[in-house]
Amino acid sequence: MTTHDVIVIGAGVTGLTAAWRLAQAGQDVLVLEARERVGGRLRTDVLDAAGAPAPFEIGGQWVSPDQDALIAILGELGLTTYPRYRDGDSLYVDRAGVRRRFADDLPLAEATQAAITELTKKLDELAHELDPAAPWDHPDAERLDRTSLRAWLEEQCDDAEACDNIALYLGPAMLTKPAHSFSVLQAALMAASAGSFSNLVDADFILDRRVEGGLQSVPLALADRLGDRLRLGQDVTRVDWTDGGAVVHTADEQYAARRVVLAVPPTVVRRVRFTPELPAEHRIAREHQSFGLVIKVQAMYPTPFWREDGLDGTAFGPYQLVHEAYDNTPAGESRGVLVGFVSDVNADRVGRLSDAERRERILDSLAAYYGDQARHPIAYVESDWQHQELTGGAYGTSFDLGGLTRWGRVLRAPVGPIEFGSSDVAGLGFQHVDGAVRVGSEIAVGILAAG
């Protein structure tokens, strides 16, 4: 058994950031990762596309201008970014299946657009009132947390299409759950974590840039710096702890440390047995969090044919199987790539189909935006994190109704020598890689300050 200052469990961005900051400060750190790779919910696969290799980012991939922590670590690691393609018109498909082009506002009836503007204003005001690090401290937090986003929208507005579009951004597009299943407070936290709800609905803001080589370059670069302080294929099954330290068990090894950082999603904490057991409140809090469901789909074509039609590739349709899609062509790539998303109840439905049936349905939905050419990709890739035990869904975890005010403050609270953290429990950058960097850095600062 080896002994260390700190053991970090999980080699996603949170764990690797914490480990690297601690190592920079002279701490003896060991990172244990159950998978045979680093990155957690970040992964880039190079796959064959009609006889030529092509990179596909399977998990998170975008960088927005408000993500200061992520941007700073990209600079520190020497990683470069490039802008998402956005020259031309975007597309919207309405409830009747009619496709319309637009340049600025969605092509909706004047009354519907006015209703969306008013709902956006109200959500911006609510997000501004909220501290994303402590949303439960809002003076009306309990009522907001007992009210579903869908119910709140229908209380505020009687325009169904306006409500459906606002629900799209916070439900399928962000929390990847139906809008009736999470609270207004949870929705406001999502908005506050990005600076405002207006930022979330602005694709040119929230999906601004990508990292050359893929966003997994961040954990890969951190892992390279940590060197032999990182061990893969080490699935932690048990942690025995006292106030003075802990012993971490894998199938074949034991490791001792003064402090332990459990840098995994809240739902994954339950895979580990603790002796003594964690306080009941910690267990219950994590039992009331869950991942949303989303299938990320990428289709590659011989050329980015939509550009020839004066389109930027951005498409929305709250009534479509693929509720949003974008030009996802990597920098320097002559072939064209579209990325689309199938979320929440739609992900349930197509998840029950055969691979061939699901692909056909999804490509049909892409064709509703881009025409028949979208049905004939030279490569097609689905990312479905719900079938991976060590993740269980995407993009991040959130509470059911009433859960955020009851248990939210527990998730970052240490237990003895054990710290907990991931992007799921971030304030700013909630559910994003930026949040993972922030949480990892905050954990490291706290451990160093405690001595």
Show the helix and strand layout.
Layout: E1 2-9, H1 13-24, E2 29-32, E3 44-49, E4 52-57, E5 62-63, H2 68-77, E6 81-83, E7 89-93, E8 99-102, H3 110-129, H4 141-146, H5 149-156, H6 160-175, H7 184-193, H8 197-201, H9 203-206, E9 209-211, H10 217-226, E10 230-231, E11 238-242, E12 245-249, E13 254-262, H11 266-269, E14 273-275, H12 280-287, E15 289-291, E16 294-301, H13 305-308, E17 311-316, E18 324-327, E19 336-343, H14 344-351, H15 355-370, E20 379-384, E21 397-399, H16 403-407, E22 418-420, H17 433-450
Parallel strand pairs: 1-2, 1-13, 2-10, 7-17, 11-14, 13-22
Antiparallel strand pairs: 3-4, 5-9, 6-9, 7-8, 11-12, 12-13, 15-21, 16-19, 16-20, 17-18, 18-19
Descriptive report:
By secondary structure, the chain is of the alpha/beta class. Among the domains are: about 160 residues, FAD/NAD(P)-binding domain; about 90 residues, Guanine Nucleotide Dissociation Inhibitor, domain 1 (Orthogonal Bundle), CATH 1.10.405. The protein is built from 17 helices and 22 strands. The strands form 5 sheets. Strands 1, 2, 10, 11, 12, 13, 14 and 22 form an 8-stranded mixed sheet that branches. A 7-stranded mixed sheet has the order 8-7-17-18-19-16-20. Strands 5-9-6 form a 3-stranded antiparallel sheet, with no helix packed on it. A hairpin with a 5-residue loop joins strand 7 and strand 8. Helix 1 packs parallel to helix 17 and helix 2 packs across helix 17. The radius of gyration is 22 Å and the shape is globular. This is Flavin monoamine oxidase family protein. Keywords: Oxidoreductase. Belongs to the flavin monoamine oxidase family.
